[in-house]
Specification:
The protein is of the alpha+beta class and 182 residues long. It is 15% helix and 41% strand. The protein contains 3 helices and 12 strands; from the N terminus they run H-E-E-E-E-E-H-E-H-E-E-E-E-E-E. Strands 3-2-6-9-10-5-4 form a 7-stranded antiparallel beta sheet. The longest helix has 11 residues. It is globular, with a radius of gyration of 18 Å. The model has no long low-confidence stretch (mean pLDDT 86).
Length: 182
């Protein structure tokens, strides 16, 4: 069966290419992450799909989020953020952190802090497979987004399930086939 193909050409307003780009990005599956910080002294979490590793030595990641969001403003002010890589049990937190135009206080989705070092740590989301505590070391504005580079200062690994995936504008899971390394 042949694939159906259509080409969207750039209009003078750029509308057709923008719509095509949005549709194409539906097919870019991504592990769901929640960027965490504190807003008004409370845990805050924004669900994003634009996160990737930059370097192992030193450990560094990047995140991209709307330049004018409360999350971006808090990171600029505090120079710290967390990234919780969500597992399937983190779906409710992911949905809460993705609602546009709503406050993203995530107190009920977070693991309580323990120990002295946690006074400066970013909130950790319950249902995460891993959490990275980062210090913002650089930022750059690109279009309507800001890209933060974070030096990873602490890693928490949790045993458990498979990652939560965002694909075709919905949350899904990886099939239950055994990974090749098992």
């Amino acid at each position: 069966m042949a694939a159906t193909r259509r080409r969207l050409r750039r209009s003078s307003a750029g509308g057709d290419v923008g719509a095509g780009f949005r549709e194409a990005m539906r097919h870019l599956a991504a592990t769901v992450v929640m960027v965490t910080c504190e807003v008004d002294g409370r845990p805050w979490g924004l669900t994003i799909s634009s996160c990737c590793s930059v370097s192992v030595t030193p450990p560094m990641i990047l995140i991209s989020l709307g330049a004018h969001t409360a999350t971006a403003n808090a990171i600029r002010e505090q120079q710290r953020f967390g990234v919780s890589i969500l597992g399937q049990r983190g779906r409710d937190a992911a949905v809460a952190g993705a609602v546009q135009g709503q406050p993203k206080f995530v107190d009920t989705y977070c693991v309580p802090h323990e120990g002295d070092d946690d006074l400066r740590a970013a909130p950790v989301v319950r249902g995460a497979l891993a959490h990275l505590d980062c210090r913002a070391v650089e930022q750059t504005t690109v279009a309507d987004h800001v890209v933060f580079f974070g030096a990873v200062e602490d890693v928490i690994l949790f045993k458990g399930e498979r990652p939560l995936i965002y694909y075709a504008r919905d949350y899904t899971a990886i099939a239950d086939a055994d990974p090749w390394w098992c």
